[in-house]
TrEMBL record:
Pfam family, one: Fer4_15
Listed name of the protein: Ferredoxin
Upper lineage: Archaea, Methanobacteriati, Methanobacteriota, Stenosarchaea group, Halobacteria
């Protein structure tokens, strides 16, 4: 299953509740969150995964007290 994780880096303030729910989330050098192979652009971090860890990603998003993380399934057209 393909899905995209988007982190609004202007909202994220480094509480890191997401790290506890999904081990792919890590602390970046700037004190905010990062993800492997994530692309930073226009104040957002985006990465697409194709694996069976959608539930973990959703748990990480739900744990963010600032709602800075969005997870959406990617449908191919």
């Amino acid at each position: 299953m393909s899905y995209e994780i988007t982190v609004d880096l202007t909202t994220c303030d480094g509480i890191f509740a997401c790290l506890v729910r999904d081990g792919r989330f890590e602390e970046a050098d700037d004190g905010l969150v990062t993800l492997p192979d994530g692309r930073r652009e226009d104040g957002e971090l985006r990465v697409t995964f194709d694996d069976d860890r959608l539930g973990e990603a959703r748990d990480a998003a739900a744990a963010c007290p600032l709602d800075a993380i969005d997870v959406r399934e990617v449908t191919e057209s």
